[in-house]
């Protein structure tokens, strides 16, 4: 089925449109360190404003415990939005209630009213559908219709993602439409060679997507912390590196299945081993069959793929026609251990076909490393949502939009 698009809502001249976004931006000392999700929302917001609508934006930020917490206020988001928006942006310090209604009443077409963090109300994430429905009714009360455009939360059964969509005429925003189109292309008839690059800390987080994509991909390239469990499954010692011992047998099964399907599993040939998890930790590059010997003979932990691996991974990526990447190759937050992630990101910019950065830490990494967004075919705004989509799971936030 096709998603209901904004056109299905009819004329929006003079309408009050509630827009559920994912503005869960990373903050350091109250300052936004990556505004990619704010920029990703602008296409939908501009379309609605040009149609004559007043916009009421809703989002979560972080994981407050069902009550206001100053560190999770949307104030920094409101300030950044105002820098990017030609109309007025008003942050209301309530989620629902009279202050929200008052702000809407004085707003004009093209203005933005941003309500406070949805998760300041415990009903947003309640396990009780009736509690979520009552909260959704309050959110919907001042609205004429709803546009859902927070792709990063469509895998969550939460009040503003599911129940709100049932309260008023509703549609998917342009971001969700774009995400679905690209991710659907990855799981059905992609151009070949098709390479999936997986990293991040835990292999257990990626087993579902590995299971779903093995019958589709040509090559599966693995780095990051998760690679040490895979290396152990292949019989290599990994010193003090991150390991999930309970997943080794499961990984062995996937390696056998990949061989049966003719999928090339590409692992690093060398690893950057460090004495400790620190930005300035002494380190040495070692081949994967000698990882027990760390710097100065210490038992070490792997914090990045080595330079030979980075070069090999980049070559494979550059020769592919379709590439999906989810998860950094190392601790990219530390400059000394960011080279592997940089090599993968750089290679993705040269892919002749479709290159997709799978959200989450991967998206944060490319921006931290200085790569412009427009050098990639698509940067997803939803790490977990992207993976669950590719796994073929039913996503409640898409189901309610007709998908």
Model description:
The protein is an alpha/beta fold and 403 residues long. It has 14 helices and 17 strands. The strands form 4 sheets. The chain has a 6-stranded parallel beta sheet with strand order 5-6-4-1-7-8, sandwiched between helices. It has a 6-stranded parallel beta sheet with strand order 11-10-9-15-16-17, with helices on both faces. Helix 4 (129-140) packs across helix 5. The radius of gyration is 23 Å and the shape is elongated. The relative contact order is 0.13. The model has no long low-confidence stretch (mean pLDDT 94).
User: How are the strands of the biggest sheet laid out side by side?
Assistant: 5-6-4-1-7-8
Task: Summarize the main sheet.
Answer: 6 strands, parallel
Q: What low-confidence regions span 5 or more consecutive residues with pLDDT below 50? A: none
Instruction: Give the % helix.
Output: 25-40%
Radius of gyration, CA atoms, in whole angstroms: 23 Å
Give the assembly state of these chains: single chain
Q: Number of helix segments?
A: 14
Mean of the pLDDT scores? 94
How far is it from the N-terminal to the C-terminal residue, by CA? 5 Å
Please state the structural category: alpha/beta
Gross geometry: elongated
The count of β-strands is 17
Strand content: 15-25%
């Amino acid at each position: 089925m096709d998603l209901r698009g904004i056109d299905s809502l009819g004329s929006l001249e003079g309408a009050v449109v509630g827009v559920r976004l994912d503005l869960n931006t990373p903050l350091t000392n109250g300052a936004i360190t990556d505004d990619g999700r704010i920029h990703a929302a602008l296409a939908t917001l501009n379309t609605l404003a040009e149609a004559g609508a007043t916009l009421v934006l809703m989002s979560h930020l972080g994981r407050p415990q069902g009550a206001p917490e100053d560190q999770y206020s949307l104030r920094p988001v409101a300030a950044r939005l105002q820098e990017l928006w030609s109309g007025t942006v008003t942050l209301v310090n309530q989620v629902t209630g009279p202050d929200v209604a008052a702000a809407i009443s004085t707003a004009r077409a093209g203005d933005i009213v941003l309500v406070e963090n949805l998760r300041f109300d415990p009903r947003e994430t309640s396990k009780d559908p009736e509690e979520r429905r009552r909260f959704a009714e309050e959110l919907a009360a001042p609205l004429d219709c709803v546009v859902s455009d927070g792709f990063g939360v469509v895998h969550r059964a939460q009040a503003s993602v599911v129940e709100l969509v049932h309260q008023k005429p509703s549609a998917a925003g342009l971001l969700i439409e774009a995400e679905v189109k690209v991710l659907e292309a990855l799981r059905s008839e992609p151009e070949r060679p098709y390479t999936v690059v997986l990293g991040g800390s835990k292999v257990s987080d990626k087993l579902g997507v590995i299971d779903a994509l093995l019958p589709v991909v040509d090559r599966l390239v693995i780095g990051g912390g998760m690679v040490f469990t895979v290396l152990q499954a292949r019989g290599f010692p990994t010193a003090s590196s991150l390991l999930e011992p309970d997943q080794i047998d499961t990984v062995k099964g996937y390696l056998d299945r990949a061989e049966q399907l003719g999928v090339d599993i590409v692992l690093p040939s060398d690893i950057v081993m460090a004495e400790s998890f620190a930005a300035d930790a002494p380190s040495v590059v070692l081949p994967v069959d000698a990882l027990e010997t760390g710097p100065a003979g210490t038992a070490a932990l792997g914090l990045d793929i080595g330079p030979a691996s980075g070069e090999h991974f980049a070559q494979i990526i550059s020769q592919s026609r379709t590439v999906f990447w989810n998860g950094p190759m190392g601790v990219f937050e530390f400059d000394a251990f960011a080279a592997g992630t940089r090599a993968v990101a750089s290679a993705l910019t040269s892919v002749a076909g479709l290159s997709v950065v799978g959200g989450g830490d991967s998206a944060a990494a490319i921006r931290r490393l200085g790569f412009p967004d427009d050098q990639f075919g698509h940067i997803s705004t939803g790490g977990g949502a992207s993976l669950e989509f590719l796994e073929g799971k039913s996503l409640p936030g898409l189901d309610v939009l007709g998908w």
